[in-house]
Amino acid sequence: MSQEGYNVTPWEARGKIDYDKLIQEFGVERLSEPLLARINTLAGGLHPLLRRGFFFAHRDLSLVLDDYEAGRGFFLYTGRAPSKAPMHIAHIVPFIATRWLQHSFGVNTYIEIPDEEKFLAKKVDSLEEVEPYIRQDILNIAALGFDENKTFIFRDSEYIGKMYRPAVLVARHINLSTARAVFGFDNETSIGLIFYPALQIVPTLFENRRPLIPCGIDQDPYFRLQRDIAPRLNRYKTAELLSKLAWGLTGPESKMSASEPETAIMLNDPPEVVKKKIMNAFTGGRATVEEQRKLGGVPEVCTVFHWYSLLFEEDDKKLEERYWACKTGKLLCGECKAELVKRINHFLALHNEKVKDVEKKVSKYMYDGKLAQEMWNWEFKP
Amino acid sequence: MSQEGYNVTPWEARGKIDYDKLIQEFGVERLSEPLLARINTLAGGLHPLLRRGFFFAHRDLSLVLDDYEAGRGFFLYTGRAPSKAPMHIAHIVPFIATRWLQHSFGVNTYIEIPDEEKFLAKKVDSLEEVEPYIRQDILNIAALGFDENKTFIFRDSEYIGKMYRPAVLVARHINLSTARAVFGFDNETSIGLIFYPALQIVPTLFENRRPLIPCGIDQDPYFRLQRDIAPRLNRYKTAELLSKLAWGLTGPESKMSASEPETAIMLNDPPEVVKKKIMNAFTGGRATVEEQRKLGGVPEVCTVFHWYSLLFEEDDKKLEERYWACKTGKLLCGECKAELVKRINHFLALHNEKVKDVEKKVSKYMYDGKLAQEMWNWEFKP
Fold this sequence. Notes:
By secondary structure, chain A is an alpha/beta fold. Chain A has helices at residues 19-26, 33-43, 48-51, 61-69, 89-105, 117-120, 127-142, 156-171, 176-183, 191-201, 220-229, 271-279, 289-295, 303-312, 316-327, 333-358, 362-368, 370-376; strands at residues 29-30, 55-59, 74-79, 109-113, 151-155, 210-216, 239-243. The first copy, chain A, is globular, with a radius of gyration of 21 Å. Chain A binds chain B through residues 116, 119-120, 122, 127, 156-157, 160-161, 164-165, 167-169, 171-177, 179-180, 185-195, 197-198, and chain B through 116, 119-120, 122, 127, 156-157, 160-161, 164-165, 167-169, 171-177, 179-180, 185-195, 197-198.
């Protein structure tokens, strides 16, 4: 297993996706050191997901900071399409970044739950099938600690009364050929899914401030469309804080997927399942203990190290120590995995306690917190 | 001007559209004498629009009558997409038939006002442009005398909260290729218009009874799609009562169109405008009075005679007398037109008084009549 082609700084471990090339292809900007320094100053710190380069690119982020400094403010927008499986730890990464941004800048946050999308995308067979997961997803998100008076979590099917009119204004500006090009719709696509992008764009119009969307770079095309339309509706173009793709457990090129359980740690996995999945995870380890002691591991391609760096080692110094301990053959995979299992299970136990606690106040996010109340009285005025 | 190719019974005057061929092409059934006789018996009469063959074809109408006789009942559904012009007399023809059916059978009637459609179809430039006409359209429709406790008139943009979920269920069953084939969508079509047919189908699911839609035969393809989908949602296929196309004033092949004022009598045309338009209307008259006295007119192609037969002569015997008076050269166009002007202006004066009266109770149809209240609490359960 060669080291070539992999970045060697531990907080920028990566697989084969050439993110430099993506920056060029998508025409986005690199999250530069000076910009990170500026965030650091304004936010009073930098979240590990930012300082370790997982968020690596952006659109208009410096304008967002200008707006913040000038007192015009900005707002955050993200979402989660419920499916017929629980959320996994890769799903919560952008929410964790969003929550950090909310706390650091004290801004409103809108979380769309498109409860119809997977059905329209023919990924589930009925709306009923998804229903049990919708509430669970909302609880999982709310449990991450969003501000209950500055966060509005809404289901499309419930909030459509407020969304439809602005969606019509948006939809008028998206013709079929554009939608096909951006979203890859084909002849088998349902007409509901073809309309759906308009609903995904509506929350970017909720305030007459700049929206900031923390998301994977693969989501950029959706919001590039918003950037074409927003000025025609007298609204701001979305700014984006773009991340790399979180790895699944089967390798740097895998994704966590609920339909392939070995790739993902679900938020409701019991401890022994977490253990089994991590013990079977793809690592940068050698074929034998002897080889590993002699040659060292390859943390750059190791999914276990990847997840330490994303969520399970907050201390940069300790992460670097782990990196070099692996690299020099001092740390073997078994020990490193066992520790990750412990940390994930600790995280999940805490998280699921928070989920229970949040149940009592989830209606604040959806209906009766300060922002939620405002939004149930909101009307779009271009 | 030849008489060939025109039907000679006065109550079936028609232009060049071959409706027999359309019956075959669309695969619908002719509105036969025995079926008309059955309606006559059950309804205690036949509306001129039915007995004169303007409504000439159907789908499943005998099943509707079976349902009625068996006590299962049925319901009526129609609609009107507001534009940036007032309604004209051709627009109200299907509503007049619908109202007659409601009164004759005592059934619930749903009237959709798709206040977003013309905007999504790029026929108007803003939603604001349409707004003043929406209320006027609703008043014009309500003024025709629908039962205020059995009629629900709803605007898409207001009622979308109830419609979206069933629309999603419908949309899942309509893929892009079908929508393109049925509605002729192309690359320039907005994604909002592509979704719209799902919203047009939703009212056919409002009751677990058979829906009957009185409409022009050109609307049949829309509801044929409904007939494919309804069984999958455990609902009835729509029945249809299909009419010919009402003529514009410029000839049997013209349509009334607000954008060509000479073709249409608008519901708010002042008497002198009505007079001017009718005086300029295309008739079956001859070049000179002498010729007309000698050869007689051709009522079969006469737009003036057409409108007598549709709305302005209820008495079949008098209509037939008019037919023969024309045919034999006894009645000249000037006199015939002057009489129609009088009748139209009388109708419009009465109608616009009813519009004023209905203003006080329009909220019954939309919000607080018996059916309206039920519908604001409705939820679709397949």
